[in-house]
Each structure stands twice: as C-alpha cells, then as structure tokens.
Write a structure and sequence with these properties.
single chain; mainly alpha; 6 helices; 2 strands; elongated
Length: about 130
Amino acid sequence: MKEFNKKNFFINRLPENLKDLKKSSARISVLISSIDESKNDILIEITNLSPILKSLKKSLKQEDMEYYNLLKVEVNKHKKTYVDKENIRWFKKLFFKHKIIDETYVRTIYRYLTTLITDIENLNKDFKKDLLK
C-alpha cells in the first residue's frame, strides 16, 4: 500500500513539485549574481523550498533521496541564518548558534537543488519508460 501511495504521489504531485523547484532554482540563480543586495529575497526563496521538499518526500523512494537529504539539511539551516549581524537579537548572539548568509551557503543550496532537479527528471524519464514496457 505504501508503494502504491508513493507511485500516486509520483504521478500526481511530482510534476508540480518539479515545476516549483525549477522556479526556485531560476530565481536563486538570478539573485545570487547580486547577493549583497538580494540577501532577504534569497532567504525567502530558501524558506519557500521547505514545504516543496516536504511534499516531494512523499514521491521519492529511499534510494533516490541522496540529494534530497543534502538539500534538506542546508535548507533547514535557514532557521538560524540571518542577513546580517544587526538582524540578530542580542540574546541569540550570546546563547545560540547563528550564521550570516553568504555566497558559499547559497551556492551549496543551488548546487544541491539543481542536482535534485536533474535526478527527478531522470526518475521521471525512467518511470515513463517502465510504463511503456
């Protein structure tokens, strides 16, 4: 039954999720060229990836989740990532781990995102070939 549900999500939700991932990837690609002026927009775009990944998880098998997992870890870091030090409250500076958004972080997310998109497109092609057999 679980396998049937995964196939159902794969057929019905995957195209929409893939479209959303591509849209985010394109937006991040544009924003990264002017990262200093676009940090807020980049952080918003990274935040928007979270629900897409949550939905996508229902469509993927465990063996297909390598870049999904890598991307999810990086995306979850956005909760502790800030645009600059002025945006961090004093007690968070003192007591909590935090990170300032930088080009390396954004490029890592972009790299994992584009690889995940490619993996999903290949899975989709393989699935369609299996249906033709």
